[in-house]
Amino acid sequence: MSFEILASVATLSNLTAMLAGVMLGIVGGALPGLTATMVIALLVPFTFSMAPLAALLMLCGIHAGANYGGAITAILLRTPGTPAAAATVLDGYPMAQKGQGRRAVELALYASGIGGLASVLVMIFLSPVVSNVALMFGPSEYFAIGVFGLTAIVGVAGRSLLKALVAAAIGLTLTLVGLDPVTGYPRFTFGSMDLLGGVPFLAALIGLFALPEAFRRSARMIGQLREEAPHFDNSHTSLREIGELTPEAVKSGLIGSAVGVLPGAGGDVAAFIAYNEARRSAKDKSQFGKGDPRGLVAAESANNGITGGAMVPLLTLGVPGDAVTAVLIGAFTIHGIRPGPLLFETHLETLIYPLFLGLIAINILMLVCGFLFSGPVAQIVRLPRSFIIGGVIVLSVIGAYSMQFSMFDVFLMLGFGALGYFFEENDYPLSPIVLAIILGPMVETNLRRGLAMHQGDALAFLSSPISLTIFALAAVTVWFSVRSRKATFATTSNA
Q1: 252-305 pLDDT, tens per residue?
Q2: Which whole-number Å values give the CA distances from 18 to 3, 13, 49, 56, 436, in the listed order?
Q3: Over 70: is that where the pLDDT of 456 sits?
Q4: How far apart are CA 325 and CA 37, in angstroms?
Q5: Whole-number Cα distances in Å, 343 to 24, 208, 286, 316
Q6: Contacts of 391 (CB under 8 A, 6+ apart)
């Protein structure tokens, strides 16, 4: 890359576009309901008058910023701003409850930056190779990926694996609601038009994670039980801790990049896979789910690692890697650019190289902006409890309503809130439900397509070396997770 390419990126208009995109993304990601996809879709029309490079850099800045922004409310309020932040709640919120809100927000920022930079490097150096591998994926391989993702249920099960399996079964059952993905026939909709598209994921996510905590705190206030705000530690994350967590951040960022290359996968899938891998490979697993920084870093690095990975099939094949890049294809088209193999021949120095450099600059800008505002943002946990409860409920209602502008989604969210409250009061984990809702459609669709392709022969799923390898990894992961669970809980019981 020449100096001229660097100069073409570092113009005032491009830097302004990147900064605006990052800030809009952080704000949009932090507000439940305003996902990166929605914010980008809303702002694409405003890029008509912009230069193509500036427009794409702003939209990519929104993507990166939103992935980090979703962690802010996930950590401080237990309300995931984006679906990809569901795994961040597992250890991020317990850290905030221990008074480590600022440290958790900074760790999420750092992990997001590392994951984003790792994904950009993957995109730069491995685009042709990785895209060719992605072309080899069919129903058998995607089914294996879904099964591998479901093995994370063992890692987030808590003390009772049976209760986790019950929760996962409920989640998988919910994915059957809506139109059949193969035949298009309505299933379990009970005549409701609102359920034809399936159970709204965002309504379920917000209801399961945000409302139970609000219900619990409301019950304590009604019962006149005093609940003090958690102690707030205003100290920054130390350089030593950053150094210790860097290998985990890099590994999880690469996992996110690999998942992002697969069309149809997303940051939520990547985050849970990376979280499970972090727990599996850790020597001490006892603190996962209780405020372990390794779990937070793994989830955040992976869901930001998706940004560059999802761009690989977009740029090289013209195939979107996720919902955000599907919208970005529209932005490319609007500006007269056609993604695909010819893009590297016709726009290599005018668009591809500048875009690569711009994505690196975007992640650096995100680190700077996030660090400047991490202190004031983390002060949310010091607000009066009644104010936080009201804010969580209002944000939850707005988030559920804003996706489809439907009150049905709001009532459904309240129902999931009641379910989540009941589950937590009876020590059932909520994460397996969310994980099953995320991966269920992928598993079912590709299982049925694979069986149809091979005339009902289930052994055909093991005929592909790629799917066989993934199944083997899933089996090894389950074996290690079960073994580590026994060792962890045996040690806890003896203590």
Answers
A1: 988 888 877 765 566 677 888 888 888 888 887 778 888 888 989 998 898 888
A2: 20, 9, 16, 9, 35
A3: yes
A4: 8
A5: 28, 43, 49, 7
A6: 77, 383
